[in-house]
Amino acid sequence: MPAAAARSVQKLCADTYFDKFVPRDLRRTVKTRMGELGIAKDVRDRLQNHAAMDVSAKHYDRYDYMAEKRAAAERWCDFLEVTISGRNVVPIRKAGEA
Known about the structure:
Layout: H1 3-15, H2 24-36, H3 41-47, H4 55-60, H5 66-85
């Protein structure tokens, strides 16, 4: 993680309820929030490059799912734009703060 990003994460952890942060937390958060947006698990798995484990997907399905992945990524981008713009943001506070 670049130094500036690491400092930002450390500040976020100090200012909120996070005790520690690891890069996998971003993957977990993205996957969880995409699920909340209604993006199907198989599309989320493909976006995060998770291997398909069943025989059909592993050996027979050669479709790249690009249209589905693009639609999911665009939906995620729209969600981030709303979040970053502050139109739908709730500040994160330490436990016990009003």
